[in-house]
Amino acid sequence: MSEILVIGHRNPDTDAICSAIGYAEFKRRTGTPEAVAARCGDTNDRINFVLETFGVPAPMFVADVSPKVSDVMQRKILSVRPDSTAAEALRLMDEKNVRILPVMDDERKCRGLLSLFKLSKFLFPAVNRAQNSRELLSSLAGLAQTLDGKLELGFDAEREDELILIIGAMREDSFAKRLEKIPPEKLCVVVGDRCDIQNFAIKSGVRVLIVTGGGPVEPKALEAAREKKVSVIVSPHDTTTTASLCRAAVSVRHVLNEEFLCFREHAPLAAVREEATASGYQIFPVLDSEGATVGILSKTDFLKTVTRKLILVDHNELSQAVQGADEVEIIEIIDHHRIGALTTQQPILFRNEPVGSTSTIVADCFFRNNVELPRAIAGLLLAGVVSDTLNLTSPTTTPRDAEILKKLEVLANVNAREFTEKLFASGSLLTLKPAPQAITTDCKEYREDGKTFSVAQIEETGFDQFWKRKDELLAALEVYRAKRAYYFSSLLITDVTTQSSLLLVVGDENFVKRIDHPRLEPNIYEMRDVVSRKKQLLPYLTHCLRKTERGVKG
């Protein structure tokens, strides 16, 4: 498959979602039709407000981009039904040049695998089991179909019988002696135009008489067969060919391998590769969540190249990227954060600018390249800019953000100030979400000097809701830190009206001691004029981390 996912970081904020949609639109309009906006985390109330305002659907959700079984499996399934004959299966195998077929029922559930090897052993028994070649297991309808013959008379034609094959190529007296040894209801007699043998078989009441050569059966013989309830099939083939084909009338459910190995369609390819290659099976049915077969995986499919590619927006660190990003090709990065530790296999387009919003960079791509910017996309990019810069009041704001925002206001026909007020009033995480969800909605993981930690941010209008829930927020933050074994976890609660914040920090005691802002309560600090996680909080926290590592007292 071929696709390019334009995707933001885990726990995406408004800027990540809006810039992903915007940049995917830009790529499609500039010659990359396979670019698709995606997200690897849930939207929140503010993001939903933005999307609904401008009538744009949320990007598709992608939890993991690592190669999956579904990426390389064969979606066109060659199969047979359990009641198909072995002859049908062999014909399909020959036409399509395959050696194994899945056997699937009406609900597309795989009942087993049918291999050419096992079919060959059944149709052509070993010398010490040659007697088995006379045994048939089939319905009369199946026999007629396998022979491309005509069922002239059929009694219980759909009933499956265990029959013994006899070829009537002998004198009548010799034939009679053979028939004495086998119950007539179990006999399948194959004979050419020898009327004496035909009549004797009918008189004996055999289960079925197969007349070869395609010639007509005497009306008197048919009438006698009807009276004796002897079924009659006319085969177009000669006697030898007819006899060899009869055994292939068996339904495949009797000769399939009921033991097989199957995989789920969304299973990581790397996780099943070893099990598949170590097994003795050649193909593996691929199932959906309901157990229906949606594809076939063969061992050679593991050699296929998965052509999924990524364009990362609003981040450039694998620790923040969608799961599996390290297993696929990253072809572009559009970001406004610090440059983290990320390596690529080849040179890529990396646009990293010191502006307040990734949406600013995306909008500039449209303007700089004279690409038409639709009103809805302009509205989304405006939302991304005002969200990340707090409508140009954040210390991360640059003149470039202000310049771009003016253009977006005109194209979207939206007043940025009025929209910002509606945006931040559209949803309070501390009012609407349980504490574990509130602290992770906009949370990023970082790694510095060998230490891994998390920094989350919640933007509110006032601190009233925070003080009501501070204890449960601290408890949830500690659980989150412990579960991931972070050195510390922090949460910045920002009041967008007063442009100040409160900082919650839990983790290593030596590190927490380095926080030198006014402590209001244990693990809660006042951070006046601090509103930016990227430009103000993160540099401060990494500074405290280095002081802790050096053992310097703050």
The 3D shape can be described as elongated
- Major β-sheet, in short? 6 strands, parallel
Structure classification: alpha/beta
Please give the alpha-carbon distance between the first and last residues.
55 Å
Total separate domains:
3
Within CATH, the superfamily of the largest domain carries the name: inorganic pyrophosphatase (n-terminal core)
Poorly predicted tracts of residues: none
- Helix count, per DSSP? 20
Q: Remind me, CATH topology of the largest domain?
A: inorganic pyrophosphatase (n-terminal core)
**Strand content of the residues, in percent?**
15-25%
Give a structural overview.
This protein has 3 domains: about 180 residues, inorganic pyrophosphatase (n-terminal core) (Alpha-Beta Complex); about 170 residues, 3-Layer(aba) Sandwich (Udp-n-acetylmuramoylalanyl-d-glutamate--2,6- Diaminopimelate Ligase, Chain: A, domain 1); about 120 residues, Roll (Diaminopimelate Epimerase, Chain A, domain 1). Helix 8 packs parallel to helix 9. The two termini are about 55 Å apart. About 35% of the residues lie in helices and about 20% in strands. The longest helix has 21 residues. A 6-stranded parallel β-sheet has the order 3-2-1-15-16-17. By secondary structure, the protein is of the alpha/beta class.
